[in-house]
Amino acid sequence: MENPLPGIPAKRYFTIGEVADLCGVKPHVLRYWEQEFTQLRPMKRRGNRRYYQHHEVLMIRRIRDLLYEQGFTIIGARNKMQEFLQAEHDKKHNGEMLLEGVEVIEISDPVLTNLRDSQPISAFNSEPVFLRQELLDIRDLLYIAA
Description:
Mean pLDDT is 79; it is low at 111-125. The chain is mainly alpha-helical. The longest helix is centred in the middle third of the chain and has 26 residues, at 74-99. It has one domain (14-85, 100-145): Multidrug-efflux Transporter Regulator, Chain: A, Domain 2, CATH 1.10.1660.10. The chain is built from seven helices and three strands; from the N terminus they run βααββααααα. It has helices spanning 16-23, 27-36, 54-69, 74-99, 110-118, 123-126, 128-145; strands spanning 14-15, 43-45, 49-52. Strands 1-3-2 form a three-stranded antiparallel β-sheet. 62% of the residues lie in helices and 6% in strands.
């Protein structure tokens, strides 16, 4: 077995070079896969530069595994990815259907309310470094749209 892939850093966007290093493929392979796998659509910014998000890096790793480790052809991997995404969609949709008609009850016990309120929603989003980066990313998006 070859070397395992490195961990994915806690960043919002990755350049094509970073993704190539994280996924163990060359940048031209990533550009080719964008043509073959319609689900893979990185955001493009100034100068047509590609910026991948975390879920796209995971998708590329899955594609790489299907092609290089499991031996699928491009067509077979494309079909497998479509099946996987459909299953994820169905799972999400079924979960939403299960919650239909469920009544939301407000917690009135002060102990439980304080416990609930003391838990951060997401440690990732509460860190000032990540908040700053998120704001910079939003600014860049607004600058491009204007």
